[in-house]
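tool_call: predict_structure(chain=1)
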Amino acid sequence: MSQDYSDVVETARDYYNSADADTFYKMVWGGEDLHIGLYEYQDEPIGDASRRTVAHMADMLGEPEPHWRVLDMGAGYGGVARYLVENYRCDVTALNLSEKENERDREINRARQLDHKITVVDGSFEKVDEPDESYDVVWSEDSFLHSPNEDKYQVIQEAARLLKPGGWLIFTDPMQTDNCPDGVLDPILARIHLDSLASPSLYRDAAQKAGLREIGFEEHSGQISTHYGRVKQELESREEELKRFISQDYIDRMKQGLQHWVDGGNSGYLTWGIFRFRKPE
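tool_result:
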């Protein structure tokens, strides 16, 4: 796996390896699924809604087969891999940038006796050290945004290269709408050190250039403000407890950043949902 990361990717790696971020995601987000949830009601537990996203995406693939090999690009703590192994007996590679998150992933896998079915790999998804046509499914949840837009074409090209004929690319990502005016999302972009987010049209164009066929985009843009608002609510309600483990500076910046995502979701210029593409047979 190449260790020559872009500045944007290196910034994301440093962030997720930090003690404050690692503790926050373990204690507040739940330490299993680090992505946007599909909420059925406003105050639903974050972990339940986040796990519903994973289950729904698996359902959208039909019935995952035990012989399938799945690559999760940007796997976080590996919740997707464990879900697919425990429910469908797939073999999963969990590719992730943060060595700290990956070590926790491996510990959980060993404790649940799943490490023989899950391979955790340190690395970035712009360049994957695997042969062509290695996987039946390439999966990602809310990770591609950490690549600059000019590199997202390479990310989708890598996914297409790695897929077997007939294989699936399924992913979610927070995106700006195709008609988003300049400047509207600047507070979010400053927080994540990016110039812009991808849009649905960018991903469609990247997939087309990579030879993939779009199956559909299931939009759930309303979940953005719900999810980030729910995380902010959880952080604020537990702030006194969390101060013992996380710096006040991180807590303050996180509350501000989460509010930017809520505001962006409410602006109508952010979207989020589930993209599905297939590689021709």
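agent: The domain at 7-278 is CATH 3.40.50.150 (Rossmann fold). Proceeding to next step.
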